[in-house]
Amino acid sequence: MSRPSPAAAKPAFLITIDTEGDDLWSRPQAIETLNSRFLARFQHLCEDFGFRPTWLVNHEMANCPTFQAFGKEVLRRGTGEIGMHLHAWNCPPVIPLTDDDHHHQPFLIEYPAEIIEAKIRHMTDLLHARFECAVVSHRAGRWALDATYAQLLSRYGYGVDCSVTPHVSWVQAMGAPNGHGGADYRNFPELPYWMDLDHIDRAGNSPLLELPVTVLPGPLQRKLPFAHSTPGLRRWAWRREPPLFWLYPDGTNLRHMLTLVDEAVKSRRPCIELVLHSSELMPGGSPLFGDEAAIEGLYSDLHLLFCSIAPRFVGRTLAEFRQSWRESAH
Predict the structure, then answer these.
(1) What is the pLDDT of residues 194-212, one digit of tens each?
(2) 169 in a domain, yes or no?
(3) What distance in Å separates the CA atoms of residue 254 and residue 153, rounded to the nearest whole number?
(4) 193-196 and 209-210: which strand pairing?
(5) Residue 1 falls inside a structural domain
(6) What is the pLDDT of residue 65?
(7) Residue 197: CATH number of its domain
(8) 229 lies in a domain?
(9) pLDDT in tens, 4-32
(10) How many other β-carbons are positioned within 10 Å of the β-carbon of residue 281?
(11) Tally of structural domains, the chain
(12) pTM for this one?
């Protein structure tokens, strides 16, 4: 029997979890990893629906014995993937860039190229040592990617990046106080593309596949693109809906996420990509989910979202999607 054509196959549902310390939004000086005790519930929920999350792991979580045991079990059962997530301010070699890197959380792209490479090399070696697996998927800390970073990822064997947030600019989000802010993805593609390593906002011939997070303008933004920024209309527009819909649960946006899923099916997108942080699965681990009631609300939303996705999509890790995408091109 011949393999179904890409057009006939179900689109992929990609789940990406930035796997990092507790409540990094509060910019703690001492980072804890208590959220590692709360991840099994989410993994089991994914497995109940046949979904296969990619855990994008940073330095403190790679060194957390509880997460190490969890990650190794996921790999042993073949129910997910371990990838890399790099927070520059506490990943060795630790070389201060500001007067308080834990507070400012500088972007990796603000460091000299040789330090960027040293940090990528350290994280790659660390993940190989801790989990004894090939690590080919990556997301940049604080969404900050540039051409130098992408070139180094490819050099160190990474085949998938998922740092791009289409339609979103992070320029107003500062790292180093004297820096230029984060990456601007407003003119980047929404759909997967093999990245041009010199011009990362366009397709090229590199082996690095970019899988952008699912972020789309909401219906109101498409109809009235000026409404959210026009005095007199701004308050009315924001009361109705945000300008962008993210496939990122925040406790209030289930309707928006379901809209994204429906639109992806109608437009025959090859994949959708959900993003979460591991600390958002723990009560008090993030600003969005401060107590057990909020976590229960999150899981209720996730269950309803997954019920909508499961009949129409197939679960894939990032590496699995890359393999299928490469095969479909031949």
Answers:
(1) 999 999 999 999 999 999 9
(2) yes
(3) 34
(4) antiparallel
(5) no
(6) 98
(7) 3.20.20.370
(8) no
(9) 344 458 999 999 999 999 999 999 999 99
(10) 24
(11) 1
(12) 0.95
